[in-house]
Specification:
Elements lengths: L1 E7 L6 H6 L2 E8 L2 E9 H8 L8 E5 L2 E12 L6 E7 L7 E10 L3 H4 L3 E4 L3 E6 L8 E4 L7 E4 L10 E2 L6 E6 L10 H4 L18
Parallel strand pairs: 1-4, 2-6, 7-10
Antiparallel strand pairs: 1-3, 2-3, 4-5, 5-6, 7-9, 8-13, 9-12, 11-13
Length: about 210
Amino acid sequence: MITVRAKPRSLKEKARALRRQGLIPAVLYGAHLDPVHVALAEKDVRTLFGQITRSTMVELHVDSEVYRVFVKDVQVDPITLKFLHLDFYVPEPGRPLEIAIPVKLVGEAPGVKAGGVLELLHTEIPVEAPPEKIPPYLTVDISKLGLDEAILVRDIPWPEGVKPLLPPEDAVVVVVPPKVEAALAPAEAAAPTAPAPEPKPGAKPEKG
């Protein structure tokens, strides 16, 4: 399990002042505990987000306390892209949690080699599971996926204790045939109108 350290912080400490010190303010909360306000080193936060997904459980050490948390919300400056604030959710141990797990494709689909187009219809799948059973991502093997074939929710080898919250017949990834140009319109509709013959020099126009 990935671990990271944080230090307790007082609400009297301004977020801007913390960030000037290279610290990112954060809060831990859950249904069974009061909010815990902490600060993490910015370098540790950047390292953390290079290793986790939204469904990765993180072990957060705050002095002598240890919390197992999921990232709930991230605030980032839209211009500098620096972290501004983090929310961590502390689930109740053993109690099922609803969370979306990212989908990770592995392998090469034969259908793509045959000219098809791979479409990932669900980049993440909502599930219900005990917190300790939730994986950081769902691995979907596409190495046998042919042209005009799909992998459905029910086809995924689900980890024990993890229940998908999508219908079992929902397609997760498909290989569709290449797009074909629209069929030509009927000949009589598509045929251009023949231009009227040009009059010969000196010829008089016909009277109607």
